[in-house]
Fold:
Amino acid sequence: MSAPPRELVAVLSAKGGCGATFLAINLAGELARHGAPSILVLDLDFCKGDVGGFLDAPGECDVHQLIQAGDHVDTAMLRGCARDYGEGGFQILVQPEDLTNLDVIGQAETVPLLEAAREGWDQVIVDCGSRIDPATLAAMLASDRVLVVLTPDIPALRDAKRILALFTRLGVDTDRVRFVLNKISRSARLDEDEVEEQLGHPLYARIRRDEETCATADLEGRLVRHVAPLSALSRDLRRTWGCLDEAPIPSPRISKRWSLPWSR
Ligand SMILES: Nc1ncnc2c1ncn2[C@@H]1O[C@H](COP(=O)(O)OP(=O)(O)O)[C@@H](O)[C@H]1O
Ligand SMILES: [Mg+2]
Structure:
C-alpha cells in the first residue's frame, strides 16, 4: 500500500467525551503503520488538551510555550518541542499539564503554528477537542479534512448539527467534513440510520463501543492496536484510516485574513 498523501486533518468532538483525542492518536498510529514518513499529533485543545496524558508522555515543552513565540514560531522550534511517541511511530506536541495558562489563543497565534507544522511533517493531525474557539476554528478552516466525532445520542447529534450549520455559515466546504460515529452499541439511544438521516450527511466511519479495551489503553497510555490488536475496535480504527488514504481535496490556503464570527 502506498504512503498516505500529505495532509492536515482536524479532529473535533461534537461534544466533550465523544472521542476526538482517542481518534486523533489512534489514527496517527494507523498512519504510521501504513508508512507515512512523518506524523505529528498537535494538541490544540487549549482548554484541557490531554494527548500527553492519553499516551503517558507529558512533554517538557508544550504548545503554550511555543505560542509565546508568536509569529516567530517556525518548523525548527516545533521540532525542538515535539516529542517522540516511539511505540506509535509518530510525534506529539502537547498542551501543558497544569490548567493555569488559560489565555485566549487567537487565530494570529495559531496560523503560524499550523504553517510550521504543515511544513515540517507529512501528516499533521490536530486534536481540536470539543471547543470551537479562534484557535480550533483556524485549524478547521486550514485543514484538508475535518473529522467530526459524535456518539449515538441526542446531545451529540444536536451539537454535530450546530457545527455543520456553523461551517455552512462560514463557507467551509462541507465535502471536507467527515462524520465519524463512535461508541456504537446495541443500547445506544440512536441507530446509525437515524443519525445519518438527522444529520443529512453520510457517516464516514463507524467505531463500536469497547469499554474494556479503551480502559486498558487509557490505563497503559497506549494505542488500541497495541493493547488489543485483534479486537473488533482495532479493526474499526483500521477501516477509519481508509478516509485518509483517499486523494486529498486541494488544500485551503492558510490565510490570516479570515474574519471569525467573534472578531468582527
Ligand atoms: N469506542 C470507544 N469505546 C469505549 N470508550 C471509548 C471509545 N472511544 C473513546 N472512548 C473513551 O472515551 C473517553 C473520552 O474520549 P476522549 O478521546 O477523551 O474524548 P474527547 O477528546 O472527545 O473529549 C476516553 O476514556 C476514551 O478512552
Ligand atoms: Mg480530548
Remarks:
- Residues 7-244 form a domain with the Rossmann fold fold (CATH 3.40.50.300).
- The first strand starts at residue 7 and ends at 13.
- The longest helix spans residues 154-170.
